[in-house]
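_Per-residue structure_
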Amino acid sequence: MVLTGSPIELWAGPLDVATGYEYREEYYTQRADPYSAGITASTPATVNEPCTDPFIDCTGLGAWNAGNYQNGRGVYHVNEAFLELGIPILDDDFFGKIDLQLAGRHAIYSQADKGANTWKVGVAWQTPIPGIRVRALQSRDIRAPNLSELFSPAQGLNGSINNLFTGQVNQQVRQLNEGNPNLQSEKAQTTEVGIVWQPDFIPGFQASVDYYRIGVRGVIQALGLQQVEQLCYDNTVAGTATIFCNQDVITTANGVNQSFAAPGGPSAPFAGTVPNQITAVHSKAFNAASLVVEGFDIEASYQFDLEDYDIPGRFVVRSLAGNISKFISDSGIPGTQRNVELAGFVAGGGNSQTYNQSGGNTLTWKLQQTQSYQNDVWGITLTERWYSGGRFTNKNTIVCAPGTCPAPTVQSPTINFNKVSSILYLDVGLNWNVSEQTQLYTKIDNLTNIRPPDTGAQNPNNTLYDVIGRMYRVGVRFSN
C-alpha cells in the first residue's frame, strides 16, 4: 500500500510525500531422493528404495560426496513501513536550485532484526553554472539474510585440507555448505558524491563522475575448509578452548574432536574406516566483522545526427569506466588473515567477499566503450571491453624471490610471482530492418576469440572472463 502526493506548497516549490506499508512472506521447501538425502522422516525407505540397497545411506547423511542435496525448508516474513519526502530548499537565479530528499524505513523481520531502521539523506544542486549538477547521498542500509543463507541444508561437495595434525597434504574430506538460522542483517553506511556535466554548447553530450564509499558490518560470509582446520589447530596449540574443533564444524567418524591425540588421519581404503578420520568440514554462513569498498564510476555519452554531413542516421558513442580502489575485508576472528585487501584479486574459484582465499573477482578497473550507428534500414554496434590486470592472491601476500622471502605467516604469506594480465574483448552487432514490423539481427561476442588470462588457479575464472570464446547469435524481432 502506497500513498503519494504534494500536500503543501513551500517557498521553493511543492513538498512531495510518499508513505506506505508492505507485508511480505518468503518460503521454500525442497525434497531430495534417498540416494542424496539418506533415509529420513521426509524421505523414508520404500519398496523401490529400501534401506537394504547398498547405495542408500540409512544414517541420513546421503550417499554422495558431490551434489549431495538434502531435504530443507524455511520461511520468514517481514513488515515494513516507510516515509519519503522531496523538499525543495532553494530555487534562485543566482544560487541555482537545491532539492533535499529524506527517507526512512522501519522493518520487522521474523527471523532477524526484530526492529531495523534505515534512512537516506540526499541533496541535488542544479548549480548556476549552465550544465553542471552536483549530487550527494548519505544512507544507512541493511540486507537481511535470504532463505538460502538462513535455512540451506548441508550441501555436499568434494573437498580437501592439509591436515595440520598429521602433516598430510590434500586429505580428501566432504565439504558441507550450510545455512545458519541465527544470522542477522548486514548493516551498511553509504556515502556518494557526484557531478554531472551536460553543456548546452555540445548538444547530445553528457558526462558524470561519482565517488562512493560503502562500509558494512556483519557481512554474511563463510570460512574456507583450510581456515577451519587452521583455527582448530592454532587454538589446540595455544591450549585454548575452541568451537572450531567441534563436531558441527569438523566431523569425525567416531564423534571425537580432532586433536593431537586423535589427529583425524586419512582412511584406507574407504571414508570412515579409521575411527577418528575426518569425514566432513562444515562451511557455515556467519556474520563477519566488516567490509569496506571504495571507488568511483565515470560515464560519458555523445549522440548526434549525421544530417549535417548529408548522411542519414544517428551516431552514438558511450563510455563507462569503473574503479574499485579499496576492497578490505576483515573477519574479526583471531587466527585468520585480517584486513585483507581484495581489490585486484582475480584468481576466481570463490566469491570475492568470502574468507576462503581460494578465489576473488574484484577488478581494480573495468572499461567499456560502445559506438553505434543506426539509420532507417540498418545499424551496427561495436563494443570494446577492457579488464585491468590483477593478482593471483590478495594484496597482503608478499612477492619475493625464492631464498629471499621472510617466513610466511597467516597474515602475510609469500609468493614468487603474482601478476594477472589485462584483457581486451571486442564485440560486434548488426541489424537489418526487413520491414516496419520485422528486424533481423546478429551479434558476435569476443570476435578475436581471446582466451581468459592465467589467474594461477586450476581453472580459469569464469565469473569475470569469457571462457567460451567466440560466440555467434542470429535472431529476428517482431513488433506490432
Q: What stands out?
A: Residues 218 and 287 are 4 Å apart (CA to CA). The longest strand covers residues 72-92.
